[in-house]
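Appendix B: complex inputs.
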Amino acid sequence: MTALIPRLRVVRPRSVEEAVAARCKHLASSYIAGGTDLLVNLRHQLRSPELLIDLSQIDELTEIRGEDQGIRIGAGVSLAKLAAHLTVAADYQAVKEAAETIAAPGHRVLGTVGGNLCLDTRCIFYNQSGWWRRANGYCLKHLGDVCHVAPQGQRCHAPFTGDLAPALMVLGAEVEIAGLQGRRWIPLPNLYVEDGRAHVALADGELIVAVHLPAAGWRSAYSKVRVRGAIDYPLAGVAVALAVKDGVTRLLQIGLTGTNSRPFLLSGTEVAIGRAIDDSLLQDIDRLVQKQVQPMRTTIVSAQYRRLAAAAIARRLTERLFLESISYAS
Amino acid sequence: MSVSQAAGARLKGVPLIDGLEKVTGRARYTTDLDHADALVGRIFRSPVSHGEMIHLNVAKARALEGVVAVVTGDDCPHPYGVLPIAMNEFPLARGRVRYRGEPVAAVAAVDAETAARALELIEFSVRELPAYYTSEEARATGAVQLHENKPGNLEREVHHEFGDLAQGFAAADLVREEQINCAEINHAQIEPHACLAAFDPLSASLTVQSVSQVGYYLHLMLSQCLEMDSSRIRVVKPFIGGGFGARVEVLNFEIVTALLARAAGGKVMMQLTREENFLTHRARPQTNVKLRIGMRRDGRITACQCEVIQRGGAYAGYGIITILYAGALLHGIYDIPAVKYDGYRVYTNLPPCGAMRGHGSVNVRHAIECGIDRMARELGLDPFEVRRVNLLHAPTRTLSGLIVNSYGLGNCLDVVERASGWRERIGKLPRGKGLGMACSHYVSGASKPIHFSTGEPHAVVNLKLDFDGGITALTGAADIGQGSSTMVAIAVGETIGVSLDRIRVVAADSAVTPKDNGAYSSRITFMVGNAAIDAANKLKAILVAAAASKLDARAEDIACAGETFWVGGAEQSSLHFADVAKAALADRGTITVSGAFTCPPEYQGGKHRGGAVGGTMGFSYAAQVVEVTVDEATGKITVDKVWAALDCGRAINPLAVEGQIQGSVWMGMGQALSEETRYVQGLPMHASLLEYHVPTIAESPPIEAHIVESHDPFGPFGAKEASEGALAGFPPALVNAVANAIGVDMDELPLTPDRVVEALVERRRQARLASIRGAA
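Resulting structure:
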């Protein structure tokens, strides 16, 4: 590693409240959990905190705990631990499939649930060295005033590329957030905003403490496309949750990542309710996905491919889950 | 001719002699060297693609506390480069910058922070010139010239024609044209570039330790650029984490580090970031291949016409050689009666391209092997049979004057056809699954060296036998992980009949080892191997004479093997190696012998202009079969299995050969599946190992490596090269397998999922149009 990390201080609070207090006290500070996203951005001079608040010593963050109505996953749980958790594997298949395919094994040992949910958005014009971005006149997301992806536009189109968010969303996740005023719970989709520059709707100092998943009542799956089968961020990722009774759909949720500045639940999936998943319904789903995803030229791979691939995966997973449900029922 | 599966019956081969050091972490790479007291070197790089330098002020950087030296183009008025006829590049830009990332100035400071701050203080401005990022733009009428003496921005045009092309095409039953384009790729060797230079002001001497594959060329360029007597310079090669051609020419940062060390009067460590590695580049150029092949109904190729355009980047580097290789290696693999080649190497405002594993041959081979496959399909012929009817018959001389003495391609075809179950399986796989095959070849060393071509030997190995009973082999050859030091040890051990652990190889230290031209063009096994055998025979003669004297026998009656010397037929009166060595040493003290090898002039290529390129004493040959699964919804290609056979003459170390076959196949897979550079206005979007998609273990298929031995008459023990020949077959075998799987011919490399989906969308569109037309 020859790119420098600027000199900075590190504190290691023992409780969530201590961490939030430290973060609020020091404007130029940043939380750090696994660091797999942050450290690269520090080396690229995209962030310049003077103080890092290391969350690794807070016990509350690292537990996975069964609750009456589901499961509570601490935000500091590593992706590797999440993927290997038996309840997660049994009842929340999409979460397991998302967790076990994030980046590469080394990243998954360090990377955390909270870190993956708060992953910075990514763009080929943004995730570059300081020299590179300066030579290119910077960009709307950082230090500049032009978006090189959509020069006429006023917003940053960098997509969110976390894998866990869509998988958790389709399963009805809520996030527990700690701030100076105490704790609050919001549905996971409400955590995100369609703005590549500020896509996480947390107030200053707020920290994601845990994710709550309700009791499982459906089958779920996650799949994504990327150039390589490891390391790469998703070009498009899709999670599907499906509940089937008597051969017809009771519930269908489709979550998407990698295409927009926020992960989101596909709207319009209620067309499936009361119907069997057949070719015509799969075509409806394909159309819904293609209409709602907004991939831009933020990756080396073409935007149109990401649109087509997202739709193709959504169809494939939905069909697969439906067939599994039917064969399981019979 | 014999065929054996790697790790087969005859000899498994030995692990590399430096392997233990590597796997235990003891091996010291350049950045592991002691640089506690070294200054930190950093390079200021041009932020613009093309411009006249109007202002460069380093005064503020120089004045910063902790900065010990700053150098600019003013500190080195001498160009450097690998080709004496094309040295148009300065270590630090002078007057003009021609690509984003070109080194302009450099600082040496007490620590990395200070060096980084100093770079910020450098003032630099240019009068911008138009910049060209494609061959087409650079060649357009009215384009500004990057180099004054190169109109049309052509670094080199090559036009070669052998045989009667018109007659060849007239004799064909099928003539087919292809336009196939290959993206630029990079070596992406795992160890980033680094250099440690120490200048001693008292003795005015310079020691440079660097990642170079060609330490003696570095030695030469340092002497020229620093205007130093070469006897005052020492170049040492530490362990190297991969070459692949990335370090096969002297690189700007190496000279810059030395300039800084001299200016600072001390030691400077330069470590480049991965981004800077991509900016340094020197890899395989973006290439357009236009192809026209004539074929008879029986598969016999009657003529081949090939136009190649290489987007070469801003400076010459190896460019002339690359564009010549692309044409030269149209020959030497099949018997083609008429061949025409038109090559264009183009200057563009991008990092300079250079040599990369399979130098010059890969993209052209890709196009041809795809073309042959498509024609076979059109004629209803099996692709193996088409190759077979076009085989050469060794020994032979090609139309272009290249000599082929040994030729195992036919055996390679037989081996992979059988191993892959081709005959039973082809055409019977379900949709989405496919098999493809292709062939390739490569030189065993360029017979005509550059710069060093004044009649000196092409390789020298010295051996020292001392009173400790150990044999020290001294070679200038750079072991870059390919196993060349192990090869030298085996060559010496086999020749003298002593065990490997008696031999110590000291390599690539200009103060100690005999000069060597370096690790390029797969020359080391052939040339250094022969030199090692020559030296070993001389040492053996001395030992045999000593044994004869002790045994009171004639030298010609002495036999030796297994560290024992005896009189033929009388094993009871034998002597151990130690006793013989002692006797020999008693006569003359420490024994030093020198062996050499030189490629004879008739092997140094054809007589035509540029004909020296491609000239070699032996070609390796390879055939491979690739099996794929294609997901038509996502465009994802999975390589299920690869069968590769390589004719390396004879495997001196089968274990190493198997590793090299796997590495070649794997690197070809990277180029075929996912690797490519992409620039936006000359800035590399791909300049990290995240965005430059080297395959991961998840993509790595089982590779079944087969060794075919054709016993080259001049190779050391019959050996030829083994490190490059099996690369070029992979991309076309993959494209042919994809065509077999989904019926789509892909004309662009790499076959990323978006390209596959795009091709499928296009096919559906064409089908719709056809059905509309049919309905109307």
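Residues 1-10 of chain B have pLDDT under 50 and may be disordered.
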